[in-house]
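Hello forum,

I keep getting stuck at the same step: I have a sequence, I want structure tokens, and every attempt I make locally crashes halfway through. Rather than fight my setup again tonight, could one of you with a working pipeline run this one for me? It's a single chain of 133 residues.
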Amino acid sequence: MSLEERAIGAKIIGFGIGCTYSTLRSANHAAEGEWRWEHDRDALVVESEKSKAKAAAERAAKEERYRTRLKNLTWEKLLAETPFERWVPSPPFPPAEFTEAARETIHNACRELRELGPKLPKAKVRCIRCVGT
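Reply #2:
Ran it on my machine without issues. Output:
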């Protein structure tokens, strides 16, 4: 595959600005993008850059929240959380009984890990089962 073909493929996959190729699913988006690329390119490029900058800022903020959470996480805080909190309503998510059993399994594993002490020996950690009994 040539470099030109790879560039075209990357545009198709990423729906790049100015791409004249599209999937049926994104035909409207591609047609509008093509028209704007031809007739309103400067504004489209500015919008695209703003969108990329916003996405990058959101990603960085999410990563920072995650790092901060990990720094301050304790077993007590972890056990106070509700695993699979977004698994409602049922359907489309698993039945409530399954969700409750999964939550209890996770909490039991956390309790067992906490009992191992501050320096978790890998061999003992591997023995902890995260499956229902």
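The chain has two domains: 3-71, 75-127. If your local run keeps crashing, start a new thread with the error log.
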